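Feature request disguised as a bug report, sorry. It would help if multi-protein outputs had a clear separator. Right now it looks like this:
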Amino acid sequence: MSLATKIGSLTLRNPMILASGVLGTSYSTLKRAYEAGLGAVVTKSIGINPSSGNTNPSIFALNEIRSVISSIGLANPGFQVFREDLEKLLESSVPTIVSIFGESMEEFKEVLNGLTDLPIQAFELNFSCSSSKKDRAQISTDPDLVFEIVKELRTNTTVPLWVKLTPNVSNIVEIASSAVRGGCDALVAVDTLKAMVIDIQTKQPILGNKRGGLSGAALKPVGIRSVYDLYEHFDEEIPIIGVGGIYRGEDIIEYLLAGATAVEIGTSLGVAYPENMVRFFQMKVKKYMEEHKFSSISEITGGAHK
C-alpha cells in the first residue's frame, strides 16, 4: 500500500499539499509544514512588488462552522526578496509549488521569468486578482483572458503550470477548459468563495476591506462539487487538485473519490499543530485503503464516477 501520487510528471510521497496563504510566508514555516509530513508545499502568492495587503481586521473566524472569512489582500515581499527564501527551501529538497499573481499579462511574465530558473516543482497561477486591462474585472472569471495568459506563460517556461480556479463563476468547466487549451498541467479547485460579515452593533462590515473570501469547512461541499464536475468533463485528461474545507481524513478521501489526485490543505493547518493534523490525516487515509483493499491513491481517484 502506497500513499504516493502523481500530478503529471511530479510524484509526491502523499497526496497532501500545503495550500497557498497558510504557513507559507517564509522558509522556516514552509520547511516546518513539509517536515510535518505533507507531500509538498505551496507558497503564499508572490507578485512583482512588496505589498502590506489590506488594512486590519483582515481575518474573521466563524468558529461555529469551522470557517474563516479573510481579506489579506495578497500581502507579500515581492518575488525578488522572496527568491532568497525559495533558494534555501529548494536546497532543503522540499517539493515546492510557487503561487504567483499579477494584474496583467506583463506582470505574470515578469514574476515567472524572475523565478523560472529555480528548480521548483510547479507554478500555481492565482488568477483571483484584479486585471487592469479588463476594467479591474477578475482574470479568473474571463475564459479568454485565462487562455491568453496560460498560453503565453507556457511559452516562457518548461516548469509545470497549475491554474487555481475560482468558485465565483456560473460555469467552472468553461474557465478550466480555457486553461487546459492554453497548456496548463493541472487544475486546482477551488479558491475562496465571495463572503462578508457585518457587525450588527456598529452596523458596519467587520473586515477592513469590507469584502472577503470564505474558506474552511463551509467551503468543502463547493470544492467537492467543483472537482466532481471537472473530473466528469475531463476524466483523466488533466490532474485535479482539490482544495477547500479539509478538517478530517474523510474529507481527503471524499475529494479523491470526486476525482482529485491530490488535495491542498489550508485553514485547518493554521488553527492546530500541523504535525498532529497531518499524522491524523495519514492514519485515516491508510485505514480507509486497508478496509477497501486499495493499494494506491490512483485506485481511489474518481471512484464516485464508477
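(second protein starts here, but nothing in the output says so)
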Amino acid sequence: MRILAIESSCDETAASVVEDGRVILSSVIHSQVAEHQQYGGVVPEIASRRHTENICDVVEKALSDASMKLEDVDAIAVTYAPGLIGALLVGVNYAKGLAMAANKPLIPVHHIRGHIAANYLTHPELKPPFLCLVASGGHSHIIWVEDYTKFKVIGRTRDDAAGEAFDKAARTMGFPYPGGIYLDSAAQQGKRGTYTLPKPKVNGSDYDFSFSGLKTAVINIVHNAKQKGQEISVNDLAADFQGTVADILTGHLMQAAKDYNAKTIVVAGGVSANSGLRSALEKACKKQGCELYLPKLSLCGDNAAMIGSQAYYEYLAGTRAGMDLNGVASIPVDVNYQN
C-alpha cells in the first residue's frame, strides 16, 4: 500500500510517499529555518503563509520522486494534531482537497505518533510492544506503545519540553536559532563538572519531567557572570547542561523500563538527534540489558515519511477522516481519532 503523506505542523512543509509503512519511496522537506532565524524562533503567521506558498511544489516533487501520479497512491495522510493551528490547517485543507479530487481515503495522523513511527522506517524489524521516549521542541513523553495505534503515556513534562529547554539555554549562551545543534557541538568540545546544575524532580511522579528550573539555572549563571564581569566557559556550560538533560531523560526512562519490565527501548523526536542523549542511552541500555532503537538522523526532525509510516497502521486499524477533518492544536497521543 502506497500512501502520500503531508506534514505541516510547524515550520517544515513536507510530503512523502511511503509503502506499507516501512519503505520510503520519496521524502521532500522545505525548511523555513533561515527565515525564522532572524526572529530567534518560529513566527506562526509567517510559517502558515510559507506553507501555503510551498505545499503544491513539495507534494508534486514527492510524487515525481516516487515516479507516481496522484491517482497511483492508495490513500492520503496528513498531520492533523498537535501543532501550530494555522500551519496545521494548510496541510489538512490541502490533503482534504487531494483526497476529494482523487477519491482516495483520508487518514489523520497524530504528530507524536509519527515521530515514534520514524523508527519503523529505520528499523523494519521493530514491532510493538516497546517503551518509547519522545523528546522534541514541544514534547517530552515516556510512552508505553502497546500496539501500533494503542499508546499509554506514563510520563510527561510538567513545564518546558526538553527541546524547548535546549533552545532557550542555547539562546542564553549566545547561539543562533535553532540552538540545539550549536549547543550539542559546543558540548562536545567542553567538559562536565565546571557548573553545578539542578536535576528537578516532580513529587509523586517518578517518570514526569521538569526542565524549567534547569533552564532558569543556566540563565542565572550567565546573567550573574555578566553582572560581575566574569567570563563564562560556554563549551563547559553547554557540556554540563546537555549532560544534565541527558541524565534526566535517561534516568527516568530506564526507571520506567525497569518498572515495566521493558527490554525494548525506542527514542523519537528532534532531541533524539542529540549526541549526548544518544551516548547516555546507549550506555544505560547496555548496562540494563535493553535493546535500543534510534531513528536515523534524517528522520529525527519533522518530516512526512514518519507520517506516512504511522498512517499505514492507522489505515489498518480503520482510521478514516471525512471532509470535516480539522486541525487540532493540542490533543493527547493516546486519544484515537474519532470521525
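Even a blank line would do. Unrelated, but nice: The longest helix spans residues 234-259.
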